[in-house]
C-alpha cells in the first residue's frame, strides 16, 4: 500500500488507524434492508448495527448503477464504531423513484439531504463513491450542518477529456448516447448474466479475478432483479445524463467551485487503476477541499471500498481519530 496527500495542511500523509478490525473475506451477506421514510423521502436502506453510545452515524451513497450493497464490507468494518445507513438512491437498487423525479445530481443531493435531516441524528459521517461522491460534494457544500466528516471514493468530479480508451468494452460509452444508446443497451442486456457480471468486474476492479464467488453471485442476482423493474434502465440512463450535465454547468455552479466551500474534514480515496474516473483528478480534488487529504491506493480500481475495505476503513478511522484530537 502507498499513500500520498495533496493538501493545504503541513501534514503529508494520511494516518491509518491501528484499531483491530474484523477480517474481510467477502462472505458477509448484504445487511438487512427495507423501505424507510425520513424527511418526506422514502428510500430502501440497509442498516449496519453500531455501538449504542456512538456519537454519530455513517451514511453511504453508492455510484452510478450501484446500490447499497456496494458498502457491505466497509460498513461491516466500521460497525464497531458507528451504525451505518447505506441507501439506494431513487431509481437504483430497490428504491422506486417518485413521480416526476428528474435524476439530476442536485435532485439526488436534495433527496439524500432531506432523508438525513429527517433522521434527527445530527451531522453524519458521509461517504460517497463515484456518482455518489459527486452527490456528496453537492450535499456537503449546500448543507454543511448535516456533515461531520466526508469520505469521497473516486468521486465523479468534472472531466471532459475522453476516457473511452480505459474501458475494456468500447460499446459501454455508446450505451448512454441519445440515439444509439437504447439499442446498445438492449444488445448488452441480451447477453447472459455471467458475461455482464464479468464485464462489470473488469470495469470496476483492478483485480477482478480476486472478487469472491459470493460477491459475483450477489451481482448476478442484482442484475436479474433489476431486469424486472420497469424504472431501472431509464433511471440509469437519466442519472448518467444528469451527471454529465453537472460537468457542463457554469463555473459558478461547478463541483470544482463548490469543493472549496466544504467545511467538513474530508478524506479523498482513489485507486491508481481506476478505469472510470481517472486518478489524475485526485490531487486537485483533495487540494480544493479546505480540510482535505488524499489516499492513493495501488492495484485498486473504481470501488476501493469493495476492493480494499480494510485499508479504507483504517484510513477513515485514522481521520476520525485525528479530527477528535484536533489535528485534521
From TrEMBL:
InterPro entries: AB_hydrolase_1, AB_hydrolase_fold, AB_hydrolase_sf
Region of interest (Disordered), residue spans: 1-44
Domain named AB hydrolase-1: residues: 59-309
Keyword line: Hydrolase
Polar residues compositional bias, start-end: 1-10
GO terms assigned for molecular function: hydrolase activity
PANTHER family, alphabetized: HYDROLASE, PUTATIVE (AFU_ORTHOLOGUE AFUA_2G14860)-RELATED (PTHR43798:SF33), MONOACYLGLYCEROL LIPASE (PTHR43798)
Protein name as catalogued: Alpha/beta hydrolase
Organism: Actinophytocola gossypii
